[in-house]
Automatic annotation (TrEMBL):
InterPro entries: PLD-like_cat. It comes from the Bacteria. This is PLD phosphodiesterase domain-containing protein.
Amino acid sequence: MLPPDSRVVAVELLRAPEGYTLDSAVLTSYSLDLETLLALPLAVLSQADAGIEQLLRDPLLLLESLRESGQKIHVFVDESAIAVPRTERPLFSMLEASVHSVKAPNGGAFHPKVWAARFVAPGRKPMLRVAVLSRNLTYDRSWDLGIVSCATEKSGAEASSSRDLARLFATLPSLCTESLPTIASDLVSSMSESLGRTLFPAPEGFTGNIEYTVFGLDSGVQSPWQPLQSASRVLAMAPFVNQTALSVLAQLGSKDKRSLISRQDSLDALPESGLEPWGDVRVMSESIEDESEDGVPTELSGLHAKLLGLEHSWDVTWFAGSSNLTAAAFTGANVEMMASVTGRRSKSGIERFEEAGIGRMLEPYRRIERPVEDAALTKAIEELESAKRTVIDSALRIATAEADTDWQWTLEGKVELPDSVAVHHWPISLSASASRPLVLPVSWRIPTSHLTAFVAFHCKSSHPKVEDIHFVLKLPTQGFPENRVNQVLRTLIDSPERFLQFLRALLGGLEGLVDWADGRNEPGTGESWNLPALGDETLLEDLLRMASRDPQRLEPIRRLIYDLEQSDGDKLVIPREFLHIWKVVERSLAERKA
């Protein structure tokens, strides 16, 4: 069971084994919080244990971690489910090359939560880590499950148990709403081939290898999935349930051997007859505390895990992953991924699972009568959801053009909305207070560093009881300048003092950067910034020592100098004295190579 802390789980899954470094990672998620993704490379590369709020505190730190990770991490997310960030940040533009919106082929949701990472080490075969989760890459705080396994990358024949895992990754480029760049397409293709040849051992307490099953990639809705043909005991857990999936599972075992765990509102929505085949029905206890950490607001709480336990003969098979107990999941309308493991009932059966602690978190389900349906409210909710779908399907696009020292950012397209719904939008690099009605085309005048492909939308119903809908779309762009990222860097390093301070921190790697950010004093406080003195030979000695012992550590500094020199602006940021020092270092490097 995964605790309700998304960042901790995400960081641990991407941290390299000892002696290895992260080479690449491909993540799939139904929903995505951009701030979580923004902080992830810094947490992984710096080995920092800070919370999200602390990691987001210094944009220069975030920028360097994103520049160092390059395009190692790619996220594929349902086109409708990128969350609106709490704060506007120009740095979100750095994520555009790594975030890819996708659409399920059969009209449902793109819902798998699969993380695959490759780690490399000199003279050793690459390692692969695969996690099949019920958790999205968001701030959501809920109880989740995952099956994680590591294996040495194999070559040769296809591994049958990993076939569906490889198939999901191989299909990702064709599901994207925009053409996938070559660098990302090649990375995903390579990952798919590696996964398909590799067997992933089951966790301790189980035998053999993990079996992966994907849903929703074949054309058309299928007959409901049947996990096993027979079982003597069943435990089914999911936050969302409906009659289609429950009817399939009710064919297994006897009533007194069937347990169902779900959310109160999901169970209340079922007819009483739908629960009659289940002898044991429970919900998450209200006494379970779910406190927020790091000041991060709780978007969701309670049960979010998806799990099936099926006992058969002396064995038990567990299925975990993204599939709820719904028709959309079981018939292939959604794209889903489940992983299964099999072991002895005596060691890993349903009773052992209950004893491990889940039982103490649950209480018997007691039906709460639902209020009589308000037809007007139901209609208003449907109209708002339909308006969101209309915006998503309207082929909106972004065009930009230079406007003196700034840029004109224009949202183009055509959207027809009902009178009962109002939609506002804004580039996420700007404050939500700058939002404007969705009457197209509409333009903003913004600096180069704020140009973005991410657009936030706020949909509001005229019905007072309907909750507003917020979401972000990543849209096609035209006319963006090539030096856009360099301008973001220039806004963060805007003086020689800031450059020298950051340079000294860079000499310590990302770990040094974190220490620097935690301990630094802001300008204007009267405290020393402890800047390196250009007249002192210490800086030159440090750079030459690094050139001799670990020249690769100079690469971030070389990249920083190059990018700052490429950015526009008349203000001198890199001191001339330092450029003289840097020439000596580069001459030393050239002599060593020769």
